[in-house]
Amino acid sequence: MAIFGPIVGLRTRLQKEGLYIDPQWLMVFFLVIGSALGRFLINLNSSRKTEIAFVKNTKLRISNYFSNKGKHIAITGFLFAVAYPFLPFTDRYLLDVGIMVLTYIMLGWGLNIVVGLAGLLDLGYVAFYAVGAYSFALLSTTFGWSFWICLPLAGIFAAFAGILLGFPVLRLRGDYLAIVTLGFGEIVRIILLNWYDLTGGPDGIGGISRPSFFGLPFTNNLKEGENSFHTFFNLEYSTAHKLIFLYYLILILALVTNFFTLRIRKLPVGRAWEALREDEIACKSLGVNPTNTKLTAFAIGAMFGGFAGAFFATKQTFVSPESFTFIESAIIVAIVVLGGMGSQTGVVLAAIFLIGFTEVFRELEQFRMIAFGLAMVLIMLFKPKGILSNREPTIKLHGDKK
Amino acid sequence: MEYFLQQLVNGITLGSIYGLIAIGYTMVYGIIGMINFAHGDIFMIGAFIAIISFLIFGLTSIALPFILLFVLLISMLFTACYGWTVEKLAYKPLRGSFRLAPLISALGMSIVLQNFVQVAQGARTKAIHPIITGKFEFFKESDFVVIVSHLQIFMVLLTIALMAGFTFLITKTDLGRAQRACEQDKTMASLLGINVDRTISVTFIIGSSLASVAGMMFVLYYGVIDFYIGFLAGIKAFTAAVLGGIGSLPGAMLGGLIIGLIEVMWSGYISSEYKDVAAFSVLIVTLIFFPTGLLGKPEIEKV
Predict the structure, then answer these.
(1) B283 lies within 8 A of chain A by CB
(2) Segments making up each domain of chain B, as ranges
(3) Which of A102, A208, A389, B32 is 20 to 30 A from B218 (CA-CA)?
């Protein structure tokens, strides 16, 4: 009964495939067979406990390996990331993907401060990303300021938005907080969409200036007496320079985020975050002010989101509300959670896995989002603590042998 | 005044849709304490099934009331299967896992359902001709005629009937008693011989079928659906559930009505572009000032 039930359930579930006037019963048939088979396999699998134990052992070994060699992996990864643009197989497309993956890694690390360290589930992180991108776009198009002035300003604006949101909502508990931040993310998007005078509505803002290399722009058409990057270094002009520069820029920004997170964990405020995550009531009774502490986490996380947004704006030279939908937030949260909350290396792996994976299957368009959602569900089912689960407090009392 | 009355009627109609979805949220939250993110998409699937069965029955020559009844039953049945499967696949294995796991899994499920429908039915919006036509007009002599369509009356009556049946189910039957018991204390309920897993599944089935009724109403009322309607409707219904006090069933209905009214009034008097902002602001304000909602019980946090 228990085996048969689900099969029937899955079958009925897919019978709505009939599309308008021309029903596609063949398709339904295949799906039913497929799901029945899948169900059958799952049932087979769950009856073999020994195999599961074996899988568990391997998993354990892998995660042990990762936690032991974490440092080496981080260093290798770092070296690989530095060398990436110059590797022989890297072409324009791969470089683009690299930039994208790094952007998500940076966002993931930024959100990790909020979700991983402080334990606040923020489903509207994209709002700060959007605030950063838009403030960067507006500052750079209206005042004509350069990238390096606008970048910190964009971060500050985003942090301000974080405080603005955080102030009223941080008294809420986990789930409510999640839903309110989600609402906030949507509010920001709707405002961007409808405040036509400032944001250009659905048209977005275009013509954002590209960053320059210490005042040397990456352009080919120069006026007399001006230097650009390639003339200054006596190089042949190539658009790849710009991409490589952008790649290093986001790499540096991401590394700054990482470094900052690693350091701030050891500061009192970082420890307060972790303590809050573990037990809020105990924290209160020990004199930690939860609201202020959470607010700093929110603001700092938002600031990094803002930096990433500014980078996004300058890379695309165009921003529009379409880039900041809920699905982006979901992707970032997925990266953090799948990576194992609080684990910096895990975020990197999850970002490479999710973004790289969806890029590889770009041709399949819609199917990749299904696969993406399924991956989220499956990883939660089999590895609920993420790929690399290291949610341990940074410090422990002596004699604690866990 | 006439304008206000018109908006009131529209608001109540919209509110009954939100209220029906909100019940699903509030029931699931009450019993397993998680926000079922995929519930909005379940509503969307209900709307799709309704539109497809309307098309199929449109080819036959059955009388209109029977078509409505059949479509209602079919969409309830199929959507309930979806709700049940989602629960089986994505939430049940995660019971007892850490807090965020089901939430993430639900997010993933919501993405899957949305894109599944997009792949299966195409990304374009689907439109259908109005099925129930006819209306009553009031205040004919004044300059603004208030229109109450038969459809709106049908929707409100259907909602009231469902609510009555549902209340009976929860308060008077064994199933309802089991459900309330699970809500209070799962361990104790299972000790007393209640099949907790089954009760939770039933909760999902009931919630999904109510959402599918809302989906069918949405199809009838707007006539246009696409695969993305679930997200916004879901958030608003969640707001309704929170506003009414999460875990409280009459609260969910009341919250739905209030949200519907606020949305309609806001777009009628202030600005229709920012009507979604209104709903979200209500959510935030409610959570800050009355975290337990209008009819909810205050929750005491124990150490």
Answers:
(1) yes
(2) 2-228
(3) B32
Q: What ipTM goes with this model?
A: 0.73
Please check the confidence at residue B19 and state whether its pLDDT lies above 80. yes
Least confident range of A37-51, B5-19, B148-162, B246-260:
A37-51
Rounded to 5°, angle at Cα A20 from A18 and A25: 20
**Phi and psi angles of residue A13, each rounded to the nearest 5 degrees, phi first:** -60, -35
Quick check: is A216 in a domain?
A: yes
Please check whether residue A201 touches B, CB under 8 A.
no
From the CB of residue A57, how many other CB atoms can be counted at a distance below 10 Å?
A: 10
Q: Which of residues 266-285 of A touch B (CB under 8 A)?
A: 281
And the tokens for B39? 């519930």
Q: With CB atoms and an 8 Å threshold, state whether B108 touches A380.
A: yes
**Chain B closest-CA separation from residue A275 CA (Å):** 16
Query: Is A159 within a domain?
Result: yes
Q: Tell me the chain B residues in contact with residue A367 when contact means C-beta distances shorter than 8 Å.
A: 115, 119
Query: B301 in contact with A at a CB cutoff of 8 Å?
Result: yes
Size of interface A-B (CB pairs under 8 A): 153
In a domain, A228, yes or no: yes
Domain carrying residue A228: 95-382
Say whether residue A288 is in contact with chain B using an 8 A CB cutoff.
no
Interface check for B288 against chain A (CB to CB < 8 A): the answer is yes
Q: CB distance from A327 to chain B under 8 Å? A: yes
Task: Classify residue A246: in a domain, yes or no.
Answer: yes
From the list B56, B276, B303, the residue facing A186 with the nearest CB is B276
3-state secondary structure chain B: CHHHHHHHHHHHHHHHHHHHHHHHHHHHHHHHCCCCCCHHHHHHHHHHHHHHHHHHHHHCCCCHHHHHHHHHHHHHHHHHHHHHHHHHHHHHHHCCCCCHHHHHHHHHHHHHHHHHHHHHHCCCCEECCCCCCCEEEECCCCCCCEEEEHHHHHHHHHHHHHHHHHHHHHHHCHHHHHHHHHHHCHHHHHHCCCCHHHHHHHHHHHHHHHHHHHHHHHHHHHCEECCCHHHHHHHHHHHHHHHHCCCCHHHHHHHHHHHHHHHHHHHHHHCCCCHHHHHHHHHHHHHHHCCCCCCCCCCCCCC
Domain count of the fold of chain A: 1
The CATH number of the domain holding residue A289 is: 1.10.3470
Average pLDDT value over all residues in chain B: 79
Average pLDDT, chain A: 70
